[in-house]
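quick q for whoever's on today - can somebody do inverse folding on this one?? i tried earlier but teh output was garbage lol. tokens:
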């Protein structure tokens, strides 16, 4: 923090100088985003018991599988971050993670992350009387197969303590590269359909 503060106590009384000061602060905060993302991922190592590996181990395994399958950088990063909301948004973690990545990736990638929770239901929700085919409401969506493949090939298959999973440090340059992009840059936001 610079020590400088705005002159207002209600936003409607702010001046141009006040908002320029806040813009500088926001840009500095955004520049620290890669570090914040990495810290949030590290917290997954101490969350949600019951699985044979930690949530951090799970997302690292999903990202390792995506990379091994030749996924592009945005999809690998999505694999790494798809469950980052587990701690702060346990009942809508997919939407939470999608909101974080949306300004930095193509729409397909954020849609896959946003819908992966619903698509993952296919594997277990019938045990609780739920409709495992609820994802079929998106059957005609152009990214249905992308999300179904994400879940089948990487997400639901990544709880194996013996799988040769790459460490977070391996993915750190990717996180830094993608989250250092200008938010909402049209080069990365182009519609794919």
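ok took a stab at it. sequence:
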């Amino acid at each position: 923090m610079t020590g400088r503060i705005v002159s207002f106590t209600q936003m409607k009384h702010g001046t141009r100088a006040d908002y320029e000061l806040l813009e500088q602060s926001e840009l500095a905060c955004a520049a620290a985003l890669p570090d914040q993302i990495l810290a949030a991922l590290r917290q997954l190592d101490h969350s949600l018991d019951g699985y044979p590996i930690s949530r951090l181990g799970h997302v690292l395994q999903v990202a390792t599988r995506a990379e091994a399958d030749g996924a592009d950088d945005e999809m690998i990063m999505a694999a790494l971050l798809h469950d980052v909301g587990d701690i702060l948004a346990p009942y809508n973690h997919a939407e939470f993670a999608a909101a974080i990545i949306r300004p930095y990736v193509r729409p397909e990638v954020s849609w896959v992350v946003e819908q992966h929770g619903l698509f993952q239901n296919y594997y277990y929700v019938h045990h609780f009387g739920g409709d495992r085919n609820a994802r079929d409401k998106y059957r005609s969506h152009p990214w249905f197969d992308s999300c179904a493949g994400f879940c089948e090939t990487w997400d639901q298959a990544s709880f194996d303590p013996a799988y040769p999973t790459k460490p977070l440090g391996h993915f750190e340059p990717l996180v830094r590269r993608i989250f250092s992009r200008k938010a909402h840059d049209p080069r990365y936001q182009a519609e794919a359909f």
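fwiw The domain at 14-189 is CATH 1.10.3210.10 (Hypothetical protein af1432). also The radius of gyration is 19 Å. so keep that in mind when u check it
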